[in-house]
Amino acid sequence: MISQKTKYAIKALLALADEVAAGGHALTIEEIAQRSGAPKRFLEHIMLELRNAGYVGSRRGRAGGYVLIKRPKEISIGELLRQVDGPIAPLPCLSRRSYQRCEDCEDEASCRLRRMFGQVFWSYLLLIESLTLEDLVAEGDLPEMGAI
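^ thats the sequence. predicted structure below, dont judge the formating
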């Protein structure tokens, strides 16, 4: 499950992407908060993190605010999830960037949990790594999914 912080980060990036698509300007933190539904104080921390990660830039002054500095098709949803929430693997032994051997595992090669979750996680990764912010902007192209 993704965190509320990640939801707000994605919604903030969507607001900025929509503004770019409309030929608009930089958005203030207030405008992003209004469009994303995120609390302004929480959003300030999120936008700083997104700026430090190279997704957005900030401008000072009268026409100031935040702008996307990457094109929406260059922003991987999988990478964004990792940036905001950290590792996304269901088991530490399946993580690419934060691999750790499970303490209670005697042999990874024969671990049934690792094998089962590995197959499920691989399918998830194929999808999440292929999605970009551009795909979310063009949401009509995504299949409708019911609650699982």
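The first strand starts at residue 56 and ends at 59.
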